[in-house]
């Protein structure tokens, strides 16, 4: 949608205000390593962020508290930060609400990332939202980080959402045209605002489309990006369009691979990020890709699996977010939905998930790679929370095993949530103990579990001297 000159000028003024006040840099300083992993905030992070904000300048505090954390403020305060014209434009675009002299951020948040700024639906982990069309999440970041430095002249972004991949690609060297395809009208509206805010509207076009339907015959692209729906959906449950993808979570990807050859230029590249579901050996996506390569032997493919987690753990931490965003669901109904999805996973034998998996397809590869799929498992190379790996015990319904690098096997119940959270990627008994006891402030439930853990490990001869500092 073409915006008026007044709106473009106001969005440009907003961007200049954000840049001059170091909005992105202050956001990174506030969140640390989490800045690169996800835009999502957990409610318990509020205390930590509050302490960090108190050490910042008044302007940085005001920007982060309002635009990013969503705290309401006086209109004069917002106007002093970004200008009255920019504030008026945000109100007219429906991004903020103004009543009398008060400005609120009920529907949207502004997320700064890598020098760019994205309006997305308001989301804090644990909140219930009636709509979540304008998505930005960990998988969005994972794909944006994998856009090549020189993508080619034309880029296609499928399932564009907030437009983060399309806008990031438009800023790359040599890119002349970017098309973003998205099914949800509200996402397209906000993605167009984001493109204008980031100064790339002249090179980015968003179209409403189910997969490639909005492309003209013969329209091809040098690079195709896709962050598809990937959640397995039981027959008795209708997940939103932006998450559900058939019984196994691969329906959209199967359609994508079938229609891909007609819209990819030669030579051409594809980057697709998704959460895979399967067993300890891998995901069902492998078979889809091998079928594609059999029909298109000129391609080479690589599937990167950066981490592996247990289905129940992933369900609570990631899939649960989708359920929480169901409109109008009470606690009892959400529990019913969660149990339905969990039973569906068990029926399919989905014991593990592979978050932020990356599929690369390349039509210009050396002969040894043509027609071949390389699967790269790099579990230890991911962020700390991805290790250790959890292994499912199907013979005991809610019991799991923690396999540590030094050979110790720790039985853990799913209900031991405080203990599970405390592990934080430790891979040996000693490092686990150091992590839990380092600051002396571990949760009492964690310490009680630790005592039990030490006894079990000592009984099996795995503890040795590691328990020396525990009382």
Description of the structure:
The protein has 471 residues and is α/β, with parallel strands linked by helices. It is globular and about 60 Å long. The protein has helices at 5-20, 23-31, 34-37, 45-54, 58-68, 75-82, 84-92, 138-144, 164-170, 185-197, 251-259, 285-295, 311-324, 331-348, 417-423, 429-437, 444-459; strands spanning 73-74, 97-99, 102-104, 108-113, 116-121, 154-158, 177-182, 204-208, 221-226, 264-279, 282-283, 300-305, 309-310, 352-362, 373-377, 390-392, 399-403, 409-413. It folds into three domains: 5-106, no CATH class; 138-383, Rossmann fold (3-Layer(aba) Sandwich); 390-467, no CATH class.
Tell me the count of domains. Answer: 3
Radius of gyration: 24 Å
The CATH topology label of the largest domain is: Rossmann fold
Structural class call reads alpha/beta
How confident overall, as mean pLDDT? 77
- Helix count, per DSSP? 17
Contiguous uncertain segments of 5+ residues: 124-130, 380-403, 412-427, 436-447, 457-471
| Helix proportion | 25-40%
């Amino acid at each position: 949608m073409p915006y008026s000159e007044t709106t473009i000028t106001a969005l440009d003024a907003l961007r200049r205000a954000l840049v001059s006040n170091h909005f992105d840099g202050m956001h990174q300083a506030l969140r640390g390593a989490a800045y690169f992993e996800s835009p999502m905030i957990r409610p318990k992070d509020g205390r930590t962020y509050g302490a960090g904000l108190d050490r910042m300048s008044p302007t940085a505090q005001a920007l982060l508290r309002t635009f990013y954390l969503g705290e309401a403020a006086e209109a004069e305060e917002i106007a002093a930060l970004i200008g009255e014209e920019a504030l008026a434009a945000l109100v007219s675009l429906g991004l903020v609400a103004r009543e009398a002299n008060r400005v609120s951020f009920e529907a949207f948040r502004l997320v700064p990332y890598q020098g760019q700024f994205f309006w997305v639906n308001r989301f804090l982990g644990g909140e219930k939202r009636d709509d979540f069309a304008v998505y930005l999440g960990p998988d969005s970041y994972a794909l944006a980080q994998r856009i090549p430095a020189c993508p080619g002249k034309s880029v296609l972004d499928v399932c564009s959402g907030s437009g983060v991949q399309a806008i990031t690609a438009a800023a790359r060297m040599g890119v002349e045209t970017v098309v973003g395809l998205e099914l949800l009208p509200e996402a397209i509206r906000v993605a167009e605002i984001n493109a204008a805010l980031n100064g790339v509207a002249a090179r980015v076009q968003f179209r409403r489309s189910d997969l490639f339907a909005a492309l003209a015959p013969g329209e091809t692209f040098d690079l195709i990006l896709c962050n598809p729906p990937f959640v397995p959906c039981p027959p008795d449950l209708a997940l939103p369009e932006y998450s559900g993808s058939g019984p196994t979570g691969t329906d959209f990807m199967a359609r994508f691979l079938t229609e891909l050859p007609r819209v990819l230029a030669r030579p051409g590249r594809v980057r697709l990020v998704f959460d895979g579901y399967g067993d300890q050996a891998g995901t069902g996506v492998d078979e889809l890709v091998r079928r594609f390569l059999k029909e298109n032997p000129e391609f080479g493919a690589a599937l990167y699996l950066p981490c592996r987690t247990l289905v129940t753990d992933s369900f609570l931490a990631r899939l649960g977010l989708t359920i929480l965003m169901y409109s109008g669901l009470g606690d009892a109904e959400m529990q019913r939905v969660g149990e339905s999805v969990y039973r569906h996973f068990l029926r399919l034998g989905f014991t593990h998930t592979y978050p932020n998996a990356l599929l690369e397809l390349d039509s210009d590869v050396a002969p040894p790679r043509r027609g071949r799929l390389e699967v790269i498992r790099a579990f230890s190379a991911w962020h700390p929370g991805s290790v250790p790996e959890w292994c499912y015990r199907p013979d005991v319904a809610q019991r799991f095993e923690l396999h540590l690098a030094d050979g110790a096997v720790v039985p853990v119940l799913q209900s031991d949530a405080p203990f599970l959270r405390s592990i934080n990627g430790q891979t040996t008994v000693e490092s686990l103990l150091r992590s839990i006891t380092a600051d002396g402030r571990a949760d009492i439930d964690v310490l009680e579990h630790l005592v039990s853990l030490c006894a079990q490990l000592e009984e099996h001869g795995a503890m040795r001297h590691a328990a020396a500092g525990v009382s």
